[in-house]
Amino acid sequence: MKRFLGEKENDYIKISNDEFFHLKKVLRMKEGDQLIAIINDENDYYCTISQMNKDYCICNIDKVEKNLANPQKDITLFQMLPKKEYLDSIVPKSIELGIKNLFFFTSQWTMIKTIKQERLNSQILTACKQCERSKLIKANPLLKFNDMINMLDEFDLVLFPYENESVENIFKPEILKDKNKIAIIVGNEAGFTDNEAEIIKNKGAVSISLGQRILRCDTAATAVLSLVSILTKN
Fold first, then answer.
1. Domain boundary at 66, 82, 110, which?
2. Are residues 41 and 98 in the same domain?
3. HSE on the CB side for 221, CA within 13 Å?
4. Which end of the chain is more exposed for a tag (fewer CB within 10 A), N or C?
5. Is beta strand 157-161 parallel, antiparallel or unpaired with respect to 206-208?
6. Residue 83 is part of which domain span?
7. Where residue 50 falls among pLDDT bands split at 50, 70, 90?
8. Residues pairing with 79 in the sheet
9. Cα gap 215→54, rounded to integer Å
């Protein structure tokens, strides 16, 4: 069944705006068709379209089930703002792999200094629907490097996959034991300056190697998130 973001009003769900346009004009759905509505909470709402209007449709709720795809761990990705082609890969993959929060940040070697929030919102919605999550992550404002650093005290564990780290300090599963609030810091295609890397380490982040090969930033983010998500049963 197709998924759509809607809003709950009394005992029914209303679908409007771009979601309604896709439902009506692209998929050509009609009254009597069934769908799954999400309203940014923990549940999936199985619905039947009962009324089609010009700008919205009304859906009767047939049953409500707890969504099983929402993340069980509190995992945050801090991603140095990359070029567009890498950003377009990182957003959906990180959401599929169970992050709860995503923050992009700028630093000394960041080439791009702005992010289009509307486009990011659209990517987040598409990714959450694709992997059948019912609760959307927030499109957080772009941070500066120091703002990101100041947030790290909130976490039980901060992982810092760093290309200059000794391969002897490769990722070890036991580091995740009893950790519930986990942050991961990933650089972009230019990487971190030596001074920035030292600041991150001095803040208590665990610097890890991902092996002998230098990975693209979207590959590094995917690799670490895959390990963390699987090993924490997220």
1. 66
2. no
3. 34
4. N
5. parallel
6. 74-231
7. very high
8. 104, 186
9. 49
